[in-house]
Amino acid sequence: LSLTGLLKRSRNRARGRRVLEDFSTPWQLDIRKGSTGVLYAEEAGAQKPVNWAFLSCGRVAHDYANALRCVDGAKPYVVATRSADDLPRAEAFRDRHGFEKAVGTYSEALLDPNVDVVYLSSLHSARVEHVTAILECGKHCVVEKPLACNGADGRRLVELARSKNVFMMEGMWTRCFPAVEHARRLINDGTIGAVTAVISDFGFDAADSGVYPTDMNDPSTGDPIYFSKLGGSALLWAGPYPIAAGLLPFGATEPRSVAAAGVVDPTGVDLSCGLTLSYAAPGGVPVPQKAGTCPPRGATVSLYTAIDAESAETTTYIGQKGRITVLPPAHCPTKLRVELKGKGRGNARVTEFEFPFPEPKRPFAPVPGGGEDDVFFYPNSHGFAYEAAAVTRCLNAGLTECPQYTLDETLRALSLVDAARKAMSEPNSES
Ligand SMILES: NC(=O)C1=CN([C@@H]2O[C@H](COP(=O)(O)OP(=O)(O)OC[C@H]3O[C@@H](n4cnc5c(N)ncnc54)[C@H](OP(=O)(O)O)[C@@H]3O)[C@@H](O)[C@H]2O)C=CC1
Ligand SMILES: O=C1OC[C@@H](O)[C@H](O)[C@H]1O
Question: Which keywords are on file for this protein (predicted)?
């Protein structure tokens, strides 16, 4: 079913719900056209299997390994911990997820010639060290968000990846979800006209899964998320999502202005932050203007992130012809609402789209110590399958970046983190 077909159907319904299961049309399978689609290996043609190395075996690594069970050609090959003392933890992870090997140092995994791609999910503060080691060994990699803790480190890592000509992607899995690809498609084909605003929020309460420190000077007394030395903060943990959502219609284009304000904890990390960007040109596709209407002169982007409270978590793209709302949880969504403006105010035709997760080829493994149905640490981690499928296709196509989230976008996102921090440290400045 073509996109036009889908839209026709949706337009025929004043308010309805469509379940999109068929993602086998060619444009959706060609990663070079900016879409991953889901996991129909048959239609994608023969894909060379990919041997994955996992550096670290913490919470998100467990979720990612589970999601690989949905991806054709994804082979869990080797899992490594930072320290040989922790080898038993890697061995337990190997057994739980069916990896071929477990090793007690990252370098052992990186020197293994059978490794095709590395999934790095160690702590933020070790990014430069770990990503540099991966790239120096000439390995392709998916680096969990954020790629780095600041723009300068990010630029150095991107330059190194480009000089080594290897694939590198910041793990902005959101961009690979079919709901988000569908939103992008609708923006790019002009369905909602010129995009004049984006509103996106993602806040969670870090105390739900970690402990607030009893001694602010001693990181061993609390969760790393609360310590800047360990790469904690709202901007680095939750912030990458609303920022990436805001960038979607504009790519890596430099905003005309960036303003930010937030709340900083005595430990030094920001607990919440609001960012407002303006762009000199609108996103998406401008539509012919009727006489007497305001031309699209630019766009305003409002973003909120937090680790001290949970927010609703939606992303809305506002265009001159309508709106697209990525429904909660917007960083790993399965639902999308499209509202096409009618005559006058408040007369939108509303359609909701739903994108069910693919089935795993073998049952998911429970989280350590969890019951049979307790299979993920984080919400909707099933959706890592979309990112892993995108990576498989990129590697098969010989790409060194994922079109869904380019390294230039990653760097733009990090430059916004830098700008927000600067603004928060100078609360009366206008920048
Ligand atoms: N895309 C997504 O949805 C998600 C992404 N993330 C990202 O994944 C990464 C890891 O998150 P998560 O798995 O929750 O984190 P964990 O707390 O589970 O830790 C991950 C790994 O980091 C290392 N580590 C943990 N504590 C310390 C410490 N105090 N000092 C040094 N190293 C330490 C360990 O590596 P080892 O095993 O080698 O000992 C550990 O396994 C982060 O970058 C986070 O932003 C997190 C959640 C979801
Ligand atoms: O990336 C993430 O980091 C923090 C988690 O709570 C969140 O669910 C996740 O996707």
Answer: Oxidoreductase, Signal
